[in-house]
Design brief:
Length: 447
């Protein structure tokens, strides 16, 4: 049940808040001193604390409230705290909000305003607990994956990437072709390496061919080899193809959609029988190769256009691993950024916000290049949003990017919509409470 702890030396305050919160089916615990409040926190599950700032008679300095706040924060760093102040200078409460308090209200409080603040914090508390449980579960799953499989040092934090990696590991030992789809720069080759590392041929060679980087007239020779003088420009020496080099291991065919139709027919035969002939030779050769292919192309559309063989597509696509673009797995962005920096520099909060807000059309490759550039441009080893040089974007809900500052008009409108509840206004603006207070101070707005 949702629970609020009220710490106030005035019994009338505890009774009044118990009645008020009870109307919303909120369980209320009351403590009449800081020590009693801290003891309640040790034995009860509390979602929000509402605390007074003065407890001794004839005391208005707020020092007792400050000490209580710090004690709660030391033992429960994520617990939301609302400050109630009657005689204390408001500057003291504002300083505590900047230090992490959820909000402050003057006595006598406004019931709707206090209820709105508590309800918002209860929802936030539940969401925070759910996120914590989710993170613990993911951490456990990641630890299990690391223990069971060779992930080749892959850096990721998103559930989308985890699903792809887990499926890749599961199918790795099956002797079947795997097709990896996804946009350029997303990391398809890293997934192919994981499949190979956990396969029955992990100790064999891992050979990569980028079908999009070779002229179409050379792809067949590259894959299947060629006898001396087999084609114009060929050397006087026979050469092995990549299938022969990969015998007993894995052949990764990147950009498989660029393979010409003649090469597709030969590839289909190798996949079905393991047999092929070099260009210019009638001798049939046999190999045992695990084939993993990848593409950013729409192969079904190419089939409809007659540019890709349907039978080859279904032979390659026994198992498809779809790697989403980086924009669809944003939890991977900061861990990848820190991995690319490798201690050469650190990201400040503005840089982290800019990384999270950027669309990353170039995916992981673009991210790596951006971090390498920022590491060279930054001062004192600290990367700021300016160092990253990313284009400003707006979130889908119309809010400005995290590094953009709302103007006075936007802040006043948010405060009006939230009826003065700072935490609610901050959430509407996409800011933390501390950040909103700083913006209010900067623009001359008083609560």
């Amino acid at each position: 049940m949702r629970t609020v702890l009220v710490i106030d030396d005035n019994p009338a305050v505890g009774t009044a808040l118990d009645l008020l919160f009870g109307l919303r089916e909120i369980r209320t615990l009351v403590a009449y001193s800081p020590d009693e409040g801290l003891a309640v926190l040790e034995r009860e599950d509390v979602d929000v604390v509402v605390q007074d700032m003065n407890f001794s008679a004839d005391t208005t300095s707020g020092e007792e409230g400050v000490a209580l706040f710090r004690a709660i924060r030391a033992g429960h760093p994520d617990l939301p705290i609302i400050l109630l102040t009657a005689w204390t200078h408001l500057e003291t409460a504002v300083e505590l909000v900047k230090a992490g308090a959820a909000d402050y209200l003057a006595k006598p409080w406004d019931d709707p305003k206090l209820l709105a603040a508590v309800e918002n914090l209860l929802e936030l508390s539940e969401a925070t607990r759910e996120v914590a449980r989710f993170r613990d579960e993911r951490r456990r799953r990641r630890k299990a994956l690391d223990a069971k499989y060779d992930l080749r040092g892959l850096v990721f934090a998103s559930i989308a990437t985890e699903r792809v990696v887990e499926l890749a590991c599961q199918v790795a030992r099956a002797d079947i072709p795997v097709l990896i789809t996804g946009p350029n720069g997303a990391g398809k080759e890293r997934i192919a390496a994981i499949v190979q590392a956990n396969s029955a041929v992990r100790n064999g060679p891992f050979v990569t061919v980028n079908c999009g980087a070779l002229p179409s007239e050379l792809i067949e020779a590259e894959l299947f080899g060629a006898e001396a003088g087999a084609y114009t420009g060929a050397t006087n020496k026979a050469r092995e193809g990549r299938f022969e080099v990969a015998d007993g291991g894995t052949l990764f065919l990147d950009e498989i959609g660029n393979l010409p139709l003649a090469g597709q027919a030969k590839l289909l035969r190798v996949l079905e029988s393991g047999q092929f002939e070099r260009l210019g030779s009638s001798r049939t050769r046999t190999v045992k190769v695990r084939v993993i292919s990848a593409t950013n192309a729409d192969l079904p559309a190419m089939i409809r256009d007659g540019r890709f063989r349907e039978d080859l597509y279904y032979r390659l696509n026994v198992i498809e691993l779809r790697l989403p673009p980086l924009a669809e797995r944003r939890e991977d962005i900061v861990p990848l950024a820190e991995h690319f920096l490798d201690g050469a520099a650190v990201l400040d909060d503005g840089a982290r916000a800019a990384l999270a807000a950027h669309a990353w059309p170039g995916n992981v490759r673009e991210l790596k290049n951006a971090l390498q550039r920022a590491a060279l441009l930054c001062q004192d080893g600290v990367i700021t949003a300016r160092d990253l040089g990313l284009a400003a974007v707006r979130a889908g809900n119309g809010r400005a990017a995290p590094d953009a500052e709302p103007d006075r008009e936007a802040i006043e409108a948010a405060l009006k919509n939230a009826r003065g509840v700072i935490s609610q206004a901050a959430a509407e603006l996409g800011l933390s409470r501390q950040a909103l207070y700083r913006r209010m101070e900067k623009t001359g707005i008083r609560d």
